């Protein structure tokens, strides 16, 4: 990874109550690329995303954005501060507002728009091209969408406006294969438009198609970092680090 990282974690430790979850995470996220964060369940991937967003505070180490410390002891960044820096977070539980319509959810996520006619129409139609169900159910309560449609809405909310960095936790979860492929194409177009993405994903075929770089976590640490293609081409490395082979997840 030759580019200066947009985001960098340096020896980050995170405690949640009495539990020490992250044990010195070192992670660099290159600009205008997709970095995959992989690892077994419980490895610390979600905690890493939440620590970056200041939802949980690092007890040791630094989270730096464009070289400036924004997380860790001595910093006071909050989730709204991170959003103002241009970060958007899609949690695994999606975080949508069930009682509001799809339209209202999108408007809440669009900081530059208070009414529908203020939304970027071209960008909205671009999103609808990948997730046509959102256009069909534009006025429906989000709580009445299927699980896969809610997942589409969660991702669409994050990309309704250009962001500097997207943090997305398992976006393909619950989606039909055709919609997963649409999401892959959306992420590829986003990085072509210089969006930086840090993506947690269990679908390894998805990871191989989208990822430029990869970091693998185990027991609260990054135990491997490199190119996604290098990992995809090395069955022995996959088995050693992940306990499985990407080739078995076509």
TrEMBL record:
- Family per similarity comment: Belongs to the ABC transporter superfamily.
Q: Which UniProt keywords apply?
A: Amino-acid transport, ATP-binding, Cell membrane, Membrane, Nucleotide-binding, Transport
- Using the record's annotation, list all stretches that form the ABC transporter domain: 7-244
UniProt-recorded Gene Ontology molecular function terms? ATP binding
Task: Output the superkingdom of the source species.
Answer: Bacteria
Q: Which InterPro entries match?
A: AAA+_ATPase, ABC_transporter-like_ATP-bd, ABC_transporter-like_CS, BCAA_Transport_ATP-bd_LivF, P-loop_NTPase
Q: What is this protein called?
A: ABC transporter ATP-binding protein
């Amino acid at each position: 990874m030759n580019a200066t990282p947009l985001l960098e974690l340096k020896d980050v430790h995170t405690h949640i109550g009495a539990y020490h979850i992250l044990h010195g995470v070192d992670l660099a996220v290159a600009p205008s690329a997709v970095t995959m964060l992989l690892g077994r369940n419980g490895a610390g991937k979600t905690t890493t995303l939440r620590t970056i967003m200041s939802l949980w505070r690092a007890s040791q180490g630094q989270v730096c954005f464009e070289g400036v410390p924004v997380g860790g002891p001595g910093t006071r960044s909050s989730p709204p501060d991170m959003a103002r820096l241009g970060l958007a977070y899609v949690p695994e539980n999606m975080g949508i507002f069930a009682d509001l319509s799809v339209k209202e959810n999108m408007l809440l996520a669009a900081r530059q728009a208070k009414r529908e006619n203020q939304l970027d129409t071209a960008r909205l139609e671009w999103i609808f091209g990948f997730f046509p169900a959102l256009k069909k159910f534009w006025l429906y309560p989000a709580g009445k969408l299927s699980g896969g449609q809610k997942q589409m809405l969660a991702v669409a909310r994050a990309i309704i406006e250009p962001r500097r960095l997207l943090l997305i936790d398992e976006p393909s979860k619950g989606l039909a294969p055709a919609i997963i492929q649409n999401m892959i194409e959306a992420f590829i177009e986003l990085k072509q438009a210089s969006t930086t993405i840090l993506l947690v994903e269990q679908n390894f075929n998805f990871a191989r198609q989208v990822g430029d770089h990869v970091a693998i976590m185990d027991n609260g640490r990054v135990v491997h970092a490199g190119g996604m293609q290098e990992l995809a081409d090395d069955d022995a490395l996959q088995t050693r680090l992940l306990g499985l082979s990407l080739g078995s997840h076509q």
